[in-house]
Amino acid sequence: MHDRQTFVVTVRGLTKSYGATSVLKGVDFSVARGEVHALLGGNGAGKSTMIRIITGSAAKDGGEIEFRDAAGNLRAEAEGRRTVTVVHQELALLPHLTVAENIVLPRYSSGLSVFDGKRSVQQAYEALGLIDRDFAACSLHRPVGDLSLHEGQMVEIARALSSGAQLILLDEPTANLTAAETERLFSLLRRLARENGLSVVFVSHRMKEIRQIADICTIIRDGRTVVNRVATSSLSDTAIVEKMGQLAAHAPTGTVSGARRSAPDGEALTIREEGLEMMLPPGTILGVAGAPAGPESLISALVGAAQSKRWSVSFSGWPQRFSSPHQAATLGAGFITGDRSQKGVLRSLPIIDNVMASRRVTRGSRLAGGRENAECFDILQALKVKAASLWDLPDTLSGGTQQKLLLARWLGVPSRLLVLEEPTRGVDIGTKKEIYQLIRDMASSGTIIVWWSTENAELLEVCDRVVAFDTEGRCAGIIDREELSEDRLADLTGMAA
Ligand SMILES: Nc1ncnc2c1ncn2[C@@H]1O[C@H](COP(=O)(O)OP(=O)(O)OP(=O)(O)O)[C@@H](O)[C@H]1O
Ligand SMILES: [Mg+2]
């Protein structure tokens, strides 16, 4: 062998077009055995497309892909692909099968093994237990369709971990995980890389995570490799953002930039549960932190999604509890769901309908012809969405760009309350800052914002106040901006990393 390192996969000059759109214009990418490698780039750069081609779920137009075994010998392409597994950006689980079946079934798909129920359940338990032992103990026989997004994400990761693959590609796996779960996943991946020679490719738009986990990075910009296999520690945050083609002015500064806004006048929204009362004057940005149980119950009450007796609100013209999401929307409570692929994006409707939906509901009609198109165009431009046509389907957009469609639906729509679940999930670093500003602007115009995020840095940057829930779903404290810190949040939520 000439190389000191063995590259389990090497991609050279990869090209791919969809119709007239050239997506990959000659990408180079290689992953060495036993390394944790961050694959970076702005929304629409081509990361997921390349991953789909490596795993064989999309065909390449040109270029080569080479797989090698642990000894450095070339493998046939089909055989090489069998040693690769992927956690997709959008969950790819079978809703009618149980958790255990979802985790182990892919192993039997080659037809070489015979399905063995009892053994499978044990294997699934071991895989899921690596991430969360309590969850594994009580969930193996539940149908996946009943799980929350966050639980589904853990099942998807467990499936990849238990596949015995040599290379694991994780396309934004931490978007729905809490800080503690992310930390557990990272230490597991690092251990598997070190001890078993597993190679890990990790896609994320969270700078802190990238630095925590990845030794090496590759940056793709507009379908080309602009940084190839460079030590992550040798690049500053600003340099990474610049290489991605995003303005240096948007580089994360690490400082708290959300100066207090002047508070608009008006009545406060009061949110109550037993022994707790929160008064939110117009223009407040309330952050919500913690494991999913608490935030989910608060949010479903605020958007009329569940008949929870736990929370009630008082606000003029509103009932104590909404009877349905429709009632909440027509009374001025907007909602951006965290489950963009199942509940958020309207898959069979064109981009323009996806963007204009809430405006049509609140206005009671659509604007005539050209005026609506022009408005939609302006909204998308503000969020830097490049779409070939407003009549394309959302599936032709990258993951982060689909997230921007959801935001576009409510940002700028006059509302009394806007509830956000992980609104910047998958949105690239440059655009995140602009979204923070758009949300601050809405608050300045009087909208009350309730914002659940699993990224504590984001809560620190944007919120006036944060309500923290512990792992049992109980309210553990309400912290004002002046007293906010990552440590404080980790303490209260019981999710110290
Ligand atoms: N099926 C498709 N039809 C047409 N265009 C597509 C299709 N799939 C992807 N594209 C285009 O390819 C480009 C790259 O998309 P890709 O999903 O690879 O980006 P990405 O780097 O993963 O971005 P993100 O960070 O937002 O996930 C985008 O401009 C997207 O619109
Ligand atoms: Mg993607």
UniProtKB/TrEMBL annotation:
<keyword id="KW-0472">Membrane</keyword>
<keyword id="KW-0762">Sugar transport</keyword>
<protein>
    <submittedName>
        <fullName>Ribose transport system ATP-binding protein</fullName>
    </submittedName>
</protein>
<keyword id="KW-0547">Nucleotide-binding</keyword>
<dbReference type="InterPro" id="IPR027417">
    <property type="entry name" value="P-loop_NTPase"/>
</dbReference>
<dbReference type="InterPro" id="IPR003439">
    <property type="entry name" value="ABC_transporter-like_ATP-bd"/>
</dbReference>
<dbReference type="Pfam" id="PF00005">
    <property type="entry name" value="ABC_tran"/>
</dbReference>
<dbReference type="InterPro" id="IPR003593">
    <property type="entry name" value="AAA+_ATPase"/>
</dbReference>
<feature type="domain" description="ABC transporter">
    <location>
        <begin position="9"/>
        <end position="247"/>
    </location>
</feature>
<feature type="domain" description="ABC transporter">
    <location>
        <begin position="251"/>
        <end position="497"/>
    </location>
</feature>
<keyword id="KW-0067">ATP-binding</keyword>
<dbReference type="GO" id="GO:0005524">
    <property type="term" value="F:ATP binding"/>
</dbReference>
<keyword id="KW-0677">Repeat</keyword>
<keyword id="KW-0813">Transport</keyword>
<dbReference type="InterPro" id="IPR050107">
    <property type="entry name" value="ABC_carbohydrate_import_ATPase"/>
</dbReference>
